[in-house]
Specification:
Elements: E1 2-8, H1 15-23, E2 30-37, E3 45-47, H2 50-53, H3 59-65, E4 70-76, H4 81-90, E5 98-102, E6 114-119, H5 127-132, E7 138-141, H6 142-148, E8 157-158, E9 162-164, H7 165-174, H8 179-188, E10 192-194
Parallel strand pairs: 1-5, 1-6, 2-4, 2-5, 6-7, 9-10
Antiparallel strand pairs: 3-4, 7-8
Protein name: Molybdopterin-guanine dinucleotide biosynthesis protein
InterPro entries: P-loop_NTPase
């Protein structure tokens, strides 16, 4: 199962928008786990009730509308997030190909195949964002994403100096771009491709 992390510098930075766009026209069977930290809760909540998930106007309903096959909402104190996440994973079907994880704190317990970071420079940076932004593979400007409304041609920054061939192919698929397009961006940003699979980079 491929794991895609989507984190952000602030609330309302476009995490759900990015996931929704990546879900569109996907051939993979997909799941989304959306996390919400609430340290006032005594016990975490793992929510997969369709009546709640599909409630009009919610982020969970948006990703369902864009093609997610399974959506789970986690509400949890930060300390209990790993336990809540494990329970959510156990609720996923075995044939899920691609799992999107939305949130910041949860990323500290995981190792996604690709981690996206949305940066909203108009809002103060959340404390939880400081821990994940340096781990991110791909950084995208929130205003650029929201104004573009599409992925193909969307500017982004590859943060690490190296990227595996697998990650480059996955990135192309997620952003609705061709492998040569990604290859051009990789070269422009002076990123080295390692563990090359087919000699395309």
């Amino acid at each position: 199962m491929e794991m895609i992390g989507v984190s952000a510098s602030a609330s309302k930075a476009g995490k759900t928008t990015l996931i929704s766009l990546m879900l569109e026209d996907s051939c993979a069977k997909t799941a989304v786990i959306k996390t919400s930290i609430n340290n006032e809760l005594d016990q975490y909540k793992v929510i997969n009730d369709p009546k709640i998930i599909n409630q009009a106007g919610t982020d969970t309903a948006r990703v369902v509308e864009h093609g997610a096959d399974k959506v789970i909402l986690l509400e949890s104190p930060a300390a209990e997030l790993p336990s809540a996440y494990q329970l959510a994973r156990n609720l996923l079907d075995d044939d899920i190909d691609r799992l999107f994880i939305e949130g910041n704190t949860i990323i500290n317990f995981l190792n996604p195949d690709l981690l996206f970071y949305l940066e909203n420079k108009d809002e103060p940076e959340k404390e939880s964002a400081k821990m994940v932004k340096n781990r991110a593979n791909i950084k995208i400007n929130t205003n650029t994403l929201l104004s573009a409304g599409k992925l193909n041609g969307l500017p982004f920054i590859i943060q690490p100096e190296k990227m595996t061939c697998y990650q480059a192919h996955l990135l192309a698929d997620l952003l609705k771009m061709s492998v040569p397009q990604i290859g051009k961006i990789v070269k422009e940003q002076d990123v080295k491709i390692v563990k090359c699979q087919l000699g395309l980079f």
